[in-house]
Amino acid sequence: MKMFYSQIVRSMSTTVRMPQIKKLVVIGGGQMGAGIAQISAATGHNVIICDVNDDVLKKSKATIEKSLQRVVMKKYADDAEKGKAFISETMSRIQTSTDTKSSVKDVDLVLEAIVENLEIKRDLFKDLDAVAPQHTIFASNTSSLPIREIASSTSRQDRFGGVHFFNPVPMMKLVEVIKAPNTSQETFDSLYAWGQALGKTVVSCKDTPGFLVNRLLVPYLLEAVRLYERGDGSMEDIDTAMKLGAGYPMGPFQLLDYVGLDTSKFIIAGWHEGDPNNPLFNPSPLLDRLVAEGKLGVKTGEGFYKYGKK
Ligand code: CAA
Ligand code: NAD
């Protein structure tokens, strides 16, 4: 019988002990961190969100409350009381802190969702490795960086994996769980089970650039920018074409703005550095210019398009 990679990985795991993730720290309270904290708390996990200052953390909590209101409008359309209780119970499981080192002292998982930069991520995990309990699993939500290279700054490469969520986290049904060469089976199983406990469909992937989704999605997004840079079509027409002609919910320029142009630029720059002869990974002068001008997309109010004030 034909078995897929994910099935093989799971079938090997039936006899090993699998630490359960109940309490976690999410580092980075931006678009992704806030979403990951939200769905974790909504499914009964206790979460601490850590970021650089209190203003960012206030914004994370406000974003989560707003998103929960949208969820409740659908899930508890006929029962306002239950909806209110769901929001307050979820919010009660979320704490915030700017003291990352103290926050990791008593958790099962540290999930990192900070800026897409290898050295910054490595430094963060190196510091946390010294203070986190032995059993604590570390995981990165990186879009594009090799998990093994982030993990190698720590002494717990066996307890280190990738968990890649999609934006907007409360709506997107998929999670990719990445098994780096040194990730233990127990760690992989714990992360896989955690993804399922969050209500997501989980796919597994080797530690390969872009994992499954971004390896296909990011070259497509950059090709759309090149199409526009060559003057072959307007941004609006390319977006309309992909929505109506390919059934995508957003056009490529809308999606780039939604993901964040900084993150998109860091992804392609990293891949280009690793494989400079691959034309799919060529950087885009227009994308680079927008990022240099601080136009990062929806999160700053302007990217390829202009948005309401943020
Ligand atoms: N929280 C809660 N609910 C939300 C939400 C959020 N953050 N965002 C949207 N929703 C809900 C809305 O309340 C709405 O609910 P109803 O159907 O009950 O009205 C529903 O989702 C649809 O939202 P909208 O009407 O506002 O807009 P939409 O129909 O265009 O959907 C979208 C919004 C879900 C974002 C959709 O456009 C979409 O799926 N876009 C593509 C997103 C995508 O491709 N993400 C992956 C990016 S790549 C990535 O993440 C990986 C990486 O590493 C870069
Ligand atoms: P973002 O810019 O919205 O948020 C990043 C947050 O990290 C900011 O609030 C920043 O203050 C904080 N931060 C930076 N350095 C920190 C540190 N040392 N300690 C604590 N907090 C720190 O970015 P995002 O879109 O949420 O992306 C975060 C990560 O998730 C990146 O690795 C990105 O590649 C990945 N990712 C992004 C998307 C997406 O669509 N945006 C999707 C999947 C994965």
Discrete helix count: 13
Q: How do the SSEs run, as a string of H and E?
A: HEHEHHEHEHEHEEHEHHHHH
Shape: globular
Give the C-alpha Rg.
20 Å
Provide mean pLDDT, rounded. Answer: 94
Low-confidence region ranges = 11-15
Quaternary state reads single chain
Question: Could you explain how this protein is built, in words?
Answer:
The protein has 13 helices and 8 strands. With 310 residues, it is of the alpha/beta class. An 8-stranded mixed β-sheet has the order 3-2-1-4-5-6-7-8. It is globular and about 55 Å long. 42% of the residues are buried. The structure holds acetoacetyl-coenzyme A and nicotinamide-adenine-dinucleotide. Residues 67, 70-71, 74, 143, 166-168, 170-172, 214, 217, 249-250, 255, 259 line the site of acetoacetyl-coenzyme A (CAA).
List the helices and strands and how they pair.
Layout: H1 5-11, E1 23-27, H2 31-42, E2 46-50, H3 54-75, H4 80-92, E3 94-97, H5 100-103, E4 109-112, H6 118-129, E5 137-140, H7 147-151, E6 160-164, E7 174-179, H8 185-197, E8 201-206, H9 213-229, H10 235-246, H11 252-259, H12 261-274, H13 285-292
Parallel strand pairs: 1-2, 1-4, 2-3, 4-5, 5-6, 7-8
Antiparallel strand pairs: 6-7
Bound molecules: acetoacetyl-coenzyme A and nicotinamide-adenine-dinucleotide.
